[in-house]
Structures are given as structure tokens and as C-alpha cells.
Amino acid sequence: MSQTDQSYASSLFARQQVSHEQRLAQSLARARSALLDLQHAEGWWNGEDEANQTLDAQYIFLLHYTGLLERPHYREKARKLGNWIRRTQRPDGTWPIYYGGPGCISVTTEAYAALKLLGDPADAPHMVKAREFIRAQGGPAKTRMLTRYQLALLGELDWSACPSLPLQLIIAPRLTRFNIYELSYWARVCTVPLAVLADVKKVVPVPEGRGVAELFPAPVAPDVLYAGADPKAFSWGNLFLQADKVFKWMERTGIYPLRSSCRERCKQWILDHQDESGDWGGIFPAIANSLLALYVLGMDVDDEVFVKGMQALERFEWPDEARDETHIAPCVSPVWDTAWSVLALAESGLPPDDPALARACDWLVSMQIKRKGDWAVKAPHVPAGGWAFQFYNDFYPDTDDSAVVMMALTNGSPESKDARLAAIDLGKRWLLGLQNSDGGWGAFELEVNQEVYNEILYNDEKNMLDPSTVDVTGRVLEMLGLLGASREDPVVQRAEAYVRREQEADGKWWGRWGVNYIYGTWSVVRGLAALGVGPDDPAMKAAADWVESYQQADGGWGESCASYLPGREAEPMDPCPSQTAWAVLTLVAAGRAQGTACRRGAEWLLAHQEDEGLWSEEAFTGTGFPNAFYLRYHHYPKYFPVLALSAYRNALAR
Questions:
Q1: Which 8-state DSSP code applies to residue 206?
Q2: Are the C-beta atoms of 448 and 182 separated by less than 8 Å?
Q3: Closest Cα to residue 270, out of 385, 180, 371?
């Protein structure tokens, strides 16, 4: 190439660079303004956390079971829930656990039962399609255990199809291997009230003609719970099957030691774990189960405790007046959404003491939890100081939120500096006190990782534990790096060793709380980079290589929830803003902001920005429980692209 050609190419490249940078600046200015418009006056952001229709169905079941469905306020609410369930049914008659996923027999069965309870006729076309699918899958006896419990409460399935849950678990001492504090927080706060329901076995039948007998292709065998067990094989699963037979014999014969006192202990545990707001654990299943348990133990629906619990459930609703419908979220996420919004806006160039950031940081400081919760059972000497995901969940702060909040609190007004630093110091002490022996962090508590609990019969979704995960550990490392921690710190060394051990051969990391390998890899790479691990490090290079290899032809990234299934690891889907943002952030942290892949990812985000300045997506990119429960965080495509494009622009400028 001649010198003239080289000069022209250089000039053209420079003009393209200017154009690209100008587009970045314009995009970020629009996005920042739009994101600020979503902030509430008190300083927080809170986007919808959408899940599947089992929550809406179970709300309807709860209203029927407690008699509240007869009250006009709740009858109207149930009508609108029914509208949502009908509208979200797919043309094949099914409901999935995530958009684009296969029809799910459990979700479809619960949705069908709820609509039937509301009066939808069995011969209506939408009901016929759903019924054909359910029967073809084997009927309600093939649903997950939690669906079976719901049907048993309504008298639509015999209790013999449901596992026993011994009440004695509540009084088992900590010295034994089997006690409730070996369960994850979400399992514990749901299991205690569920054990009451399984023990009392109170049935509130649905009105005549509104049951689901037509869903059963054949009578349910009395021993359906034990179908498929291998009597010759020793396993924890088979041991629990045999134990269940013993418990059912005890129930039939009345030989049940300490039954009455255990019921009282369970009731007191439930009452003691209700937040002042009325919530239990900040999640719908725990609140619904606790209300049902208190009801079967004799509590009136007009009791103050019960009323507060129902009010808590109403705060999980997302009404749509234009469509005359409403639906239920599994939880709310204001602390999480606020902390990430602060980080995105600060990275975009908003001054750290900007009034919007100052309000947000002051609100985050006010949300620090300074009372001890269940986590203190295993960590009694650790001072309280974490943050929860929700507005109200004082018993269960989590490590991931706490790490992100502490990063966000490096912003804020000069007047609040002392308060912010004090909050960070206390939060850090709490967080470091929950590091597991393997070097990583679980989401909520210390050393809740005994695999035997995933074999408990009612837990056929394998979600009873809260072990260390690389995505949470990566986030903690990022926070520690931002706060000035050294790689020579023993805490950091153990955590870094843990995430390096967990890296897969092709460079990616599995993500527990987001879908999936893109999420896990982003979390770890950002954490290592914050500690000063450079792009030439073999782990960083392998991770960046994998992210680049996973990019799709149009420049974006997309990974399906199916990627958690064996044999379908890293299964792609159409690109979406949140996952593309995570990939761009990974490449920036790995020192590849100047590379072609990162630029193409940024261009994809620029091309998909919507007129109002932000992004949207229908994809479920949040993980509740792999292969069982997924979340569509409506604010993910709003703040993560802002963070990614800002980090990319800033890296280019450097």
C-alpha cells in the first residue's frame, strides 16, 4: 500500500472512530436521561421480576382455600389474574417456565386448575388444548411435588401422592445432620409452613364441577410416590423413600411422637420470622405457605398477622389496567436495581455527587440491615450489616446485593461520606464473615452445602442448597478490588483460588443466578480485573477467547435457559441486550475493548436502542433455580447496556 493509501486509510479510520464515539456519546446521553426518569422520588429503582404462571394460580388457590375468594375485593383480583393466565397461554395450549421454552406440565396443570376454579368450562378451546397436553404427559401425578401439594390441598389429588414432611425437623438440634438450618433460606422459610400443611392435611374442595378430574388419563396408583425406585440400589433418594413409608405409617397409626408440640413450635417459628411489613422471606411462596399454615392452625383471616401477610402479597402485584389484568411477581428487587443503576449512571459520567446518585445512595444506606437473621445461626460472632434484595426481608440479607451496594456507595454526596463509609465498613465485616471454607460465597448463609438435602423427596427440583458460586464470589472479589484489597490478602487468595478451580476447560464459568455461562464468566472476569489480574493471565485470556467465540453473526450475544440442561451447555438463542451487555463488559475487563468483537457488541447495542433511550427484551436471563424457575428482570435491559457502553467508551478513551 502506498503512503497516500495508508494516509487515506488512516484518515478514514479516524473519521469512523469519531463517528463511533459520537454515536456512543449520543446513545449514552439518551439512555442516562431515560434511566434517571425511572428513579422514584425516594431515590430507588424497582423493575418488575416476572416469573411463570404458577404464582398467579397459587394466589387463586390461596384465596379459595381461606375463603377470601368470596370477598368482592379478592374476587375481582382473581378475575384479573385469570385474564393474565389466559392471555399468556401459548397457541399449543401450554405454559412454559420461560418464553420460548417447552410446555411445562406443572405450570400448565396449575394454570388449568386455577382457570377451572374461576369457572372456565372444560370444553372451552383453550382448556381443551391445555388438557390434551397434560394428559399426554401423564396427568397431574407426573407434576412436580410442589404442584401435587397444591392439588392435595384442593382435594384434587390424594395426599399419598405427596411426600411426608416430618414436623420433628423443627426441633432437631443443630448437632444433628438433619435440621432446618442445613437448608437454604428459601427452602427453610417455605418448608416449615409446608410441613404444617402436610401434617394437618386440611382439604378445602373446589365447588362441584370446577375440579380437574378430567386431567387424569388413568387412576392414580396408591404407591405413585415410590414409582421408579430401585430397591437394590443404596442411595439417599431410596433411603428417603423408605423413610417416607415409615412416616406415612406413623400418620395412619397415630404413633407420632411430639406431634402437638412440634406443631406449636412450627407455628411459633413462622410467627417469629414474619417481618414487620408482613412479609416472610421477601418471596411469594414463603408468604403464601405461611398464611396457609397459620390458617390451618386456626388463625382467622382477619387477624392482624394474616392481614399484614395478605398486604405483603399485594405488593408483589403488577397490574395492567389497559388489559384489565394483574399478575404476581415472586419478589421485588429495589435494592439490586438501585445499586446497579447507580453504578451504570456513575460509569456513564454522571458526577458521583449528582443529586440523583446522592438520593439513591442515601436510600441504600438506610436499607442496611443491622439486626441478626437466620444467617447468624452458623455465624454467631459476625456483626449484622448486609443488604437484602427486597424492600422488606430483614432475616435474609444476601451477599450478592451487599457487594453491589457497597460498590455503589463509593458514590454519593460529600455530606453523606461518613455514613457511607461506616455502612461499607460494617457491610464488609458481615460479608467477609460468610466466606465458605472452599473460598467462595453462597448467596445468603454460611456452609449450606450438604448434597444429601437435594435428595429429599419433596425437592424434586434439586434446589435446597446455597453453596458457593462463582458469580457471587466474582462479585465479592470485584467489590474487594474496588475498595482497595490486595491479592495478597488471605481472603482474596482463597476466593481467587476457588474461582480458578471452577473455570471450565474452554475458559467459561457456569452462572448460578443468571443465564448462564455469559453471566458467570462476566462476574468472575470483572472480579479478577478489579484485583489487578491482567489480560495476559491464562484464565482471563481463556475466558475472553470463549466470549469472542460465542458471539453471534450479528454481533450480539444470547444464551438460552436450556443451557443448564446436560448436553445442551451454552445453547444459544437470539441475542438480547442484557447478555450482550455482560459479554461486552467481560471483554472490556479482559483488556479487549479495542478488539473487533467488543466493537461489534457495542454496535449491536447501539442499533437496538429504542426511541425512548433504553432497551427491552422478552428473554428470561435471571435464574431462580436452574431447570426449574427462571426470571425476567424488566430492568436488566435498561441499566446493564448503559453500564456496558459506558465501560466500553471509557476504556477506549483510556
A1: P
A2: yes
A3: 180
Pick the last residue of a domain from 296, 328, 360.
Answer: 328
373 and 518 co-located in one domain: yes
Residues 254 and 374 in one domain: no
Q: What average pLDDT score do residues 213-221 get?
A: 93
CA distance 350 to 32: 8
Find the helix packing angle between 636-653 and 577-589, rounded to 10°: 30
Residue 325 cell numbers, joined: 389484568
Same domain, 73 and 151: yes
Domain total for the chain? 2
For residue 267, pLDDT over 80 is answered with yes
Q: Residue 615's Cα: distance from chain center in Å?
A: 21
**pTM above threshold 0.90:** yes
DSSP-based three-state secondary structure for 326: strand
Helix (H, G, I), strand (E, B) or coil at 516: coil
Provide mean pLDDT across the span 540-551: 98
Query: Which residues have CB under 8 Å from 136's CB, separation 6+?
Result: none
Helix/strand/coil percentages in the chain, nearest 5: 55, 5, 40
Q: Which three cell numbers stand for residue 262?
A: 412440634
Q: 114 pairs with which residues across the strands?
A: none
Q: Average pLDDT, stretch 363-390?
A: 98
List Cα–Cα distances, 578 to 301, 446, 567, 604, 609, in angstroms: 42, 30, 24, 12, 12
| 296: CB partners within 8 A, 6+ apart | 196, 197, 200, 202
Angle between helices 334-347 and 399-408 (to 10 degrees): 40
Active-site residue flag, 400: yes
CA pair distance 618, 578, nearest whole angstrom: 11
Residue 12 in any domain: the answer is: no
Q: Phi, psi (5° rounding) for residue 326? A: -150, 160
User: Where do the H-state alpha helices sit in 38-118?
Assistant: 54-66, 72-87, 105-117
Domain that holds residue 431: 18-49+332-653
CATH code, domain carrying 257: 1.50.10.20
And the C-alpha cell for 531? Answer: 484485583
- Of 400, 401, 460, 466, the catalytic one is 400
